[in-house]
Amino acid sequence: MGAAFVIAAIITAALVSGASILTSRQALTDVVGSNLHTLATDQAAIVGGFIDTQIIALRALSVGQGIVASAEIANLQYSSSPKSIRAQLARQEGEWRSAPDSAGIVQTRISNSPVRVSLSLFQNLQPDSIQVVLVDKQGGLIAATSRPEHYDQSGELWWQQAMSGEPFIEQSLNEASGMVQLHIAVPVMNLSSNSTVGVLQTVYQLDRLVAQLSGVRVGVSGRALLQIDHDQLLSTDTMIRAADTDAVSALVASGADYRIGSFEGGQRLLSMAPVSASPAIARLGWSILLYQDQAEALAPVDAARNTGLLAAIGAMIVAGVISFGMASLIVNPLAKMAAAAQKIAAGQLGLRVGLSRGDEIGQLASSFDAMADSLEQRIASEQHAQAERLQLQEDVIHVQEETLRALATPCIPLNDRILLLPLIGTINAQRASQIFSDLLREVAGRRAQRVIIDLTGIPSIDGQVAETLLRAADGARLLGAEVVLSGIRASVAQTLVALDIPLGQMVVVASLESALSGG
After folding, report:
1. Beta strands in 317-367 (DSSP E)
2. pLDDT in tens, 126-150
3. 183-192 pLDDT tens trace
4. Fewer CB atoms < 10 Å away: N or C end of the chain?
């Protein structure tokens, strides 16, 4: 009877301990897998934020009045006939491809372009940008920081999509270097007429982004990879290498946050998160793939299993009441850790077991709490780092906006004796005063003989601003330049007549095209 009771006690203890071990092992595995998925999601958000920052910066540049004015001036060179436009672009494309770098058609768009300073400044503020290109609404090249292969860009997909009003993002392979690059294009908008007048495009290299991902570590063996296609990964030097498609496909098909399987020659814990900061970015199809060796990732789980097995063996050795007592001492802490593990996996990162014992169960509980502390600190560190990166992105955008605002009203030299001052948008007293000083400085510095002040883009004007602008025109005449006013709207003309502003010493023409043809 005693033997039967002992056997029954041993079997009961073994079954209870085994069930608890299995439960706690799965719960702890879920915590580790959830942690890996959280880190993958954070890295995907960082990559998406990086791309989104480049789009915002390019949009800020595209609304600069110097960029808009250059595009509108370039658009004036075309006739209204589509056939004539295509013939003109074909002729310019042929001249571009055969011309040396010293030729006029190249120099006026690369080295001597009026917006060269704006494009170069943008490129300096965005060190990952290797080329910036400005194209008119017909696809003709206006300016670039380096010489592109083609003058006519109308056949490019990025030009076609951006001209439709949507930003364009696409990866490409540089066949010469074997490196992956990112192409971003945005429309150049005339905000006063709400029309697309051109396209601004830049090419980014991904070295810094991939290097940042290469620095992500999960334990000793864990790494983060950028998956740019179903079967392609970027390595640390941005070279494409083949992905383990079986492992990736199995992870996607499972729909789980993580999966344990064979990946790149070893058993790994895998997790993946899509890069989807916006619909345009999501269309790239990028994902962050995070992996860690199974043995390292599940070391705390295996420690719990081994400890549980030892406890179960000890319970089976002890007979009767001692067996049940030992089983209780083992099962209850494991159950508590299993419940804590499930709650931590559900997001309660501050939860701890708080079990103080000097045996293996106590050591396991201490290891569990230490693992939870490490998980909470790691996530907090990632969140803090992400906040700092977002703040840095905002600071860069602010500097760009301030710089572009300073370039908002450029005097554009058309040749050695003619200056063009295109005025766009609302002009207040402060901006009128700035125009006054900038115009006189440019006329004096360049010794211009004619100044064309184009008012096409000004919807209205008040008396103080009108007097300031006319004083600027008087100053230009005193410096020996003939002043031509073009594009005066009806509302602006009414203001000038009502204020009895004298225009007798200036040439007034209907449009900028008339002013240019007269020069």
Report:
1. none
2. 888 999 999 999 999 999 999 999 9
3. 999 999 998 8
4. N
239: left (phi over 0), alpha (psi -120 to 50) or beta: beta
Asked if 361 and 334 touch (Cβ cutoff 8 Å), the reply is: yes
pLDDT tens digits for 28-78? 788 888 888 998 899 889 888 888 888 999 999 999 889 999 999 999 999
Please state the pTM of the whole predicted model: 0.54
- The one-character DSSP state at 152 is B
- CATH topology classification for 412-518: Transcription Regulator spoIIAA (3.30.750)
Cβ atoms within 10 Å of 158's Cβ, excluding its own = 23
Contact (Cβ atoms closer than 8 angstroms) between residue 455 and residue 487: yes
Buried b vs exposed e over 7-35: b needs ≥16 C-beta within 10 Å? eebbeebbebbeebbebbbebbbbbbbbb
Q: How far apart are CA 194 and CA 318, in angstroms?
A: 85
Q: What distance in Å separates the CA atoms of residue 45 and residue 213, rounded to the nearest whole number?
A: 12
Residues 11 and 141: their CA atoms lie apart, in Å, by 83
DSSP 4-54: HHHHHHHHHHHHHHHHHHHHHHHHHHHHHHHHHHHHHHHHHHHHHHHHHHH
- For the chain, the structural domain boundaries read 1-404, 412-518
Which of 114-118, 182-186, 248-252 has the least mean pLDDT?
248-252
